[in-house]
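A quick aside before the break. I want you to see a complete sequence-to-structure record at least once, exactly as it would be stored in a machine-readable document. Don't worry about memorizing anything.
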Amino acid sequence: MKKSILSIAILALLFTSCNNSKKETQNTEQNNTEEVETISHDNHESHETHDAHSAISNNWMEEIQLDNGNKWVANEETNIGVEKMKDILKTQQTTTLEGYHQLAKELTEAKNYVIKECTMKGPSHDNLHVWLLPLMEKIDALSEVDNLEEASKIKNSIQENVEAYNRYFK
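That is the input. The structure line, written in tokens, reads:
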């Protein structure tokens, strides 16, 4: 439940400017967390069902757009963060649940770097969110997964998500 609250708070932050000041970000996180805590348990159950489906879905590819047929220009730090995710996916051993959870932890760090260092604005920024938000849900789901079969499916979906980045951004 805490990870779901944190995920929703982070998602809300992403829809604001990625480069907010530290004070504004802290205030927003506190407000968003308070709002999320008011969600009823019935709604939480429906979010869990949606999150499980989101963890392996790549429906975001239907929403993302190119820049008049060209790749969007991303800031260097975003590209560095995505390359870090690719390296993590190649090197982290995932034969146990602990390995998958460690993978989620390392991917979270790289994802947080992308969010923190984002300076993109306008349509390129909006399309980055189309790519990033489902990835965040998948990473969160991987950190909470409790069986190897589901963990493998989520990891494969994360890999597809991360590898698709270069189709849309340069």
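Two observations worth writing down. The CA atoms of residues 3 and 140 lie 7 Å apart. The chain has seven helices and no strands. We'll return to this after the break.
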